[in-house]
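User: Teach me something about this protein's shape.
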Amino acid sequence: MIPASVPAEVVYTNRHGVTQTVPVHAWDDDGYAVALWRGALQRAQSIEGFKEVRERREIIGVVPGGGWMIEWQVDGEEAAFADPVVAWVVYSDGQAVPIDTDSAGEAFPVTSSSDWRVYHPDAAPHSPAPSDEGKHA
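Assistant: First, the predicted structure itself:
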């Protein structure tokens, strides 16, 4: 076995339909990812609900929100609401993800694919690109 020198993870769907991950511990002699599963090392492909093996992004830093806002569009409603971005999580691949809070004060990185946007109140308002001028919605 070859120890996993680059952080990688096995992605699988559990029996409740939730996508989860476990770290890759090594690569076997045939090049397959090996993970600790139910107390034993197993090939990733043999894990129930296996989806893929991918490089694992690691959090390398957290920086303040800096006045940025996150605006949420609620399904079926025209009105949106905005919250301050509490902080930004910075990952090893360079991506920065906003951290928002819920009504109970719990902080979480925004990974939802829901309708949301991030903006800074001091930024210039959105204006159409020159190629969009004259187009009607």
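Now, about its shape. The first strand starts at residue 2 and ends at 3. The radius of gyration is 21 Å. If you'd like, I can walk through any region in more detail.
User: That's plenty for now, thanks!
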